[in-house]
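Most newcomers find our protein records easier to grasp once they have seen one. There is nothing in a record beyond a sequence line and a structure line. Getting from the letters to the tokens is the skill we practise here. An example says more than a description, so a record of this kind follows:
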Amino acid sequence: MDSSAPAARVTTVTGPVPVTDLTGPVLPHEHLALDLDRTGEGAAVLAARHAPAVAAELAALREETGLSLVTELTCRGMGRDPAALVRISRASGVAVVAATGWYYEPFHPPEVNGSTVERLTDVLLTEITDGVDGVVPGIIGEVGSHGDTPTGPEARVLRAAARAALATGLPVATHAHLGRGGPAQLALLTREGLAPDRISIGHQDLLDSPATHRELAAEGAYIAFDTVGKEHYQSDTVRLRLLLALLDAGHAERALLSCDISRHRYLWSEGGPGYGHLFRSFLPRLRAAGAGADLIDLLTRRNPLRLLTGADPGPRRPRPRPHPRPHPRPEDSR
């Protein structure tokens, strides 16, 4: 990276942050405040009552791992709460990127029905320009589809996302339901003129298809292994095998890792895997499989920051940090 050039900046909920300040790992696909509840059971919710536990988890990870940044992919129709993201970021000391866009069709708000691509693009550009409750989005996502090809409304939303990304320079992160439909998403987005390296195809660790992952990565897209720890969807053993296959194929610079915490029972404080499962469980297994410090840094910091900014932040500059202390669950300290 040219030291004479101004440092790239990440748009966070509390303002722009130079990439040079983000020296620790990044979680590129998480949820800190959302409401996907359509049944009234309240399971798929991270509400105000959960915010202190969310902030405490992130603060613990900042101390334990140096966690620098969380990309929060709750968008329109998902119970987005920009003010809550600001409070969580300030309470935890971890930078947070907010999102705009629309999820997949079952969660589309009425505004999507009948809207043209042009109208949807204008909505995104207004949010990116003017902010949402004072918070400026730093990414478009998680823009969704389900099945092998997007539905009509999903295609319009994806096309609008691509056009807004072209106009603003923001990247697009997708929701490929259960890992399906990534090639169709990439084809649709790139037909609008968006470069593949500004696109992350979501939930690919739920698709046991190394050939598809290689195809997407070879075209230049990021491959998101972003449901790490969700064993009821896919075992981490399979995730590790899929990741190693992608790495062995020479696509380390296109892999992203995250946990996609999207229900309150996933929180560490409620006995779930928590936002730290990637660091406490999955990465040790990856290291045991032969991954060194430079590769871990590439996967957990350089790749997500390059997606956000379009610029490679360069190798990690070591900073002395205190020896990390384990953080027990609340019930362990009673």
Notes: The chain has one domain: 9-312.
